[in-house]
Design a protein that fits this description.
By secondary structure, the chain is α/β, with parallel strands linked by helices. The protein is built from 12 helices and 5 strands. Helix 1 packs across helix 3, helix 1 crosses helix 10 and helix 1 packs across helix 11.
């Protein structure tokens, strides 16, 4: 028996990446919400188009947790999510059902397409990110369970060859011009596969990534606060009252110097 209940935070799993996706949402609220009032900023995101798209990567087996998390969370906030991927790169059916149910409640739209250009057209937000097909991940899990190392190597070789058939799925300057006013917010959970920088061909063109480098750092910076908030909410029964009390006490933090 433990002396106290530990705080558990899901940093990432096969189904979802809650800390990343909530950080992404907070970044969107701050960048596109258009108001210092949180409720108003969230309301302003409703109807914004999000292009959550697969993108080519020369590496093997990237997780589905980010696209699945975005589909599940952003539709909950009333945002229109278009999920785009080449045929054969499907996500979990259960996640699709969650997104569709969210749309019924929030009035959002959820669409699946196999055309990256269709997803990018008039998008307010783009999130080009590689992932492995759900069925392939199931197969890999089964192979690991059997200890079939040769089978895993064969699967990796097959998936790399499958990826290589879709090198045109890249976030380029031409693709960005299709977005709303050509100025969509570019998101990535990092590290990105940058063409001619980290790899010969990848998820995003170097010029696009460089232009969004500062916003990407801001996007990433929200994750520690999301994690801290999750821990705080798990430990405190009445978070509003606790925060108000801390504000009222207004105790100065130690700023260094002599004790």
């Amino acid at each position: 028996m433990l002396e106290q209940k530990p705080t558990l935070v899901n940093l990432q799993c096969d189904i979802d990446h809650p800390t990343q996706c909530m950080a992404d949402m907070l970044h969107c609220i701050h960048t596109l919400g258009g108001s210092d009032d949180l409720d108003e900023a969230i309301k302003n995101l409703k109807g914004k188009k999000v292009a959550m798209t697969w993108a080519y990567s020369p590496s093997y087996g990237k997780p589905l947790s980010v696209p699945q998390g975005v589909a599940g969370l952003f539709t909950r906030f009333g945002m229109d999510v278009t999920l785009a991927y080449p045929e054969g790169y499907e996500i979990m059916d259960d996640v699709v059902k969650v997104a569709e149910e969210n749309c019924r409640k929030s009035g959002a739209k959820f669409k699946i397409t196999h055309d990256m250009k269709e997803a990018f057209k008039d998008a307010d937000i783009v999130y080009p990110k590689s992932w492995a097909p759900y069925k392939a991940m199931e197969e890999r899990t089964e192979l690991y369970g059997k200890g079939d190392l040769e089978g895993i190597k064969a699967l990796e070789k097959r998936l790399l060859a499958q990826n290589a058939e879709h090198k045109d799925w890249e976030c380029t300057e031409e693709m960005m011009q299709l977005t709303k006013d050509g100025k969509a917010l570019y998101l990535h959970c990092l590290p990105a596969d940058i063409t001619d920088v980290s790899c010969e061909a990848g998820e995003v063109a170097a010029s696009v990534f460089d232009r969004y480098r500062d916003p990407l750092y801001k996007q990433a910076s929200f994750k520690p606060y999301i994690i801290a908030a999750m821990i705080f909410l798990a430990k405190v029964k009445n978070p509003q009252a606790t925060l108000l009390k801390l504000e009222a006490d207004a105790k100065k933090r130690w700023e260094g110097g002599e004790a």
